Amino acid sequence: MNITILGDGGWGTALSKILAENGHAVKVWGAFPEYLEELAAKRVNRKFLPGVPLPDSIRYEADMGKAVAAAEMVVLATPTQFLRGVLNTFHPYFQVRRHLLVNVAKGIEEKSLKRIGEITLEILGPSAYAVLSGPSHAEESARGIPTAVAAASSDPALARTVRDAFMNRSFRVYTTNDVIGVELGGALKNVIALAAGIIDGMELGDNPKAALLTRGIAEMGRLGRKLGGNPETFAGLSGIGDLIVTCASRHSRNRHVGEELGRGRKLDEIIAAMQMSVAEGVKTAPGAKKLAEMNSVQTPIIDQIYEVLYNGKSPESAIDDLMRRDPKSE
Prior knowledge:
8-stranded mixed beta sheet, 15 helices, alpha/beta, 330 residues, Rossmann fold, N-(1-d-carboxylethyl)-l-norvaline Dehydrogenase, domain 2
């Protein structure tokens, strides 16, 4: 297939490598032409995926019209809070009968509280749309380390098309029709990962982390079901699978932010030190909290993470308040 990836970050770069090695004709669009020139010349993404050689067949194009002109599949690999602007740039060139859209980003838009599928529908209208998500750090997938993810679409044939495009001996793809659940699993787990990082930064040990993951997936499931997701999805790759890897991995930006908060650093200082890297959970937390409130869903972990991030609450106080909640049945 002719495939264009909108986004030259770590995950977009890893997927460009996977798709090129699968035999597809791949183009990558990015917002900074001078950096695309560097990628084309040096064949390594030093900012977002250092140390991984990129195939010579991948083409880099700063002009959106040229980037998507021949594309049959367009992969949305732009961080959630910037995607609206990219979709508006793409809109004049979008052909509903030609372009299959595959979202690979994870998050909830802060102002609108919308999933990426909802943002895409708002800007581009009805389309052939799928989402690819699961426990998949770019640093490992790009190096051929075994990875399994889920491809979701309301059209089973589209889900299978996405599966067949991406799947190879080290990148396994399962299919599902639960777009809402897969997108929410990928978004909400980032907030829980901030809490996991806080536990690690405070050096509290294994007991609280196990409890956090267990109660965290319960929160994700409650809110996800209320918003239209299938409960079984949150027990799968895009739910508990993605939660585990994001809460445990040294590659996790969200866990890193939480870890630094647990060590006593301020959020602004942590984000500044990360330069252009994005920790989606920081921007997803307010949206997740508002969605829970609007739908009368109890999300105590998400609520406490919001207080730590935005109201200056200490991690110690947040943990204490969680432990002192009224007794409940599991």
